[in-house]
Amino acid sequence: MLDKEGIAKRIAKEIKDGYYVNLGIGIPTLVANYIPDEVDVILQSENGLLGMGLFPFEGEEDPDTINAGKQTITRLPGSAVFDSALSFGMIRAKKVNLTILGAMEVSENGDIANWKIPGKMVKGMGGAMDLVASAENIIVAMQHVNKAGESKLLPNCTLPLTGVNCVKKIVTELAVLDVLPQGGFRLVERAPGVTVEEIKKATAGKLIIDGEVPEMVI
Amino acid sequence: MNKVVSGADEAIRDIEDGHTLMLGGFGMCGLPEKTILALVKKGVKDLTCISNNAGVDDFGIGLLLHRRQVKKMISSYVGENAEFERQLLSGELEVELIPQGTLATRCMAAGYGMPAIFTPAGIGTEVAEGKEVRNFNGKDYLMEMAFDADFAIVKAWKGDRLGNLVYRSTARNFNPVMAMAGKVTIAEVEELVEPGELDPDNIHTPGIYVHRIFKGENYEKRIEQRTVRKRNQL
Predict the structure, then answer these.
(1) In chain B, which residue's Cα lies nearest the Cα of A68?
(2) Chain A residues touching residue B101 (CB < 8 angstroms)
(3) CATH classification of the domain holding A49
(4) Are B184 and B150 in contact (CB under 8 A)?
(5) Whole-number Cα distances in Å, A97 to A19, A171, B59, B172, B228
(6) So what's the ipTM on this one?
(7) Which Pfam families does its entry note (chain B) (predicted)?
(8) What's this model's pTM, rounded to 2 decimal places?
(9) At the fourth CATH level, which superfamily is domain B8-116+146-215?
(10) Residue in B52, B127, B169 nearest the CB of A129
């Protein structure tokens, strides 16, 4: 089973040289730490920055330089700053190659819910609705089951949707799964030490298993 | 032409109960903190505030929320603000949550003189309820109307007395598009300079959009999530 860092490490392998990547809040933010040096990527932060760098050294925090998670960050050489409308312009125009975000639920046809639990919790959708409506390559990073032990990979989402038919890949502490265009979660890899049976038990939506499922290498 | 006013109190002299305000900033970054304090002091109420977030409990728009000066918030993200979330869930505060890109682009449309935009954000979700959907090249888009705000209140790094503005780093965020969208735009700046001191090739907001400008003193510029790395880390 993977911890959060493990999920981030596995997702980092999906990032290709030359990509512009948008990382959501939470586990996706950690992915930046595991992108190999030889893979040249530029991180987009939807509050208006291309070329997001590491956290600043202690004492060098700049309140004017933050990421979409409102964390202090640095700007890399060659970075560019722009306003929020332009930021979502480049997202809508599909210039960003990969979007990685968290979710509360994903359905077997690729619907995602991640912004509201009616009557209990409202965070707001932030930029997630814009990102999932336009991005062609969306990976969800999340836990396979919620705190109550219920599967987050469902036949249909029960929570208010963020976007429909958009998630392509999911990485959880148990597995890597592709969301198939015709519907269903295809099991691609198992996390170290996790059995297919355990993944079956934790997946409420339609799980598709083609032959041997390899253990992931991270 | 001189758009300089003495300070925040003069800048907001005609903001009254029930007005619709746009407020720049992303979290607490690039927030017009001096004008917000003046609004708190003036005590205007029943405001509709269009702003990406609502500050935190004791800073930014959170101060207006605490004093119940806000009737309605139009935002994209309310996380990290316990009082906002409480007023929302209890129904005390009217809240319209909209996608962040839609929020920015509805401001942009107003500043560009366009009545509406089409965006795929929110298709198939509750955001689409009651809105016109148009299909272009096989994909559905929502029609979203340009914002109509009485005042836009923005924070810039530098400005001159003609109202030309320059922002610094990611404190730019919503400020330029909101500056363009208000019927009356108020800009507070860290440095007020003479015309000619700002490079015309690097003006972010042309002064035509700005009606009042003042220099704010002693910016607090709070940090919401202070994240750092140690010197010995990579």
Answers:
(1) B26
(2) 46, 84-85, 87-88, 91-92, 127, 129-130
(3) 3.40.1080.10
(4) yes
(5) 6, 18, 36, 24, 28
(6) 0.95
(7) CoA_trans (PF01144)
(8) 0.95
(9) Glutaconate Coenzyme A-transferase (3.40.1080.10)
(10) B127
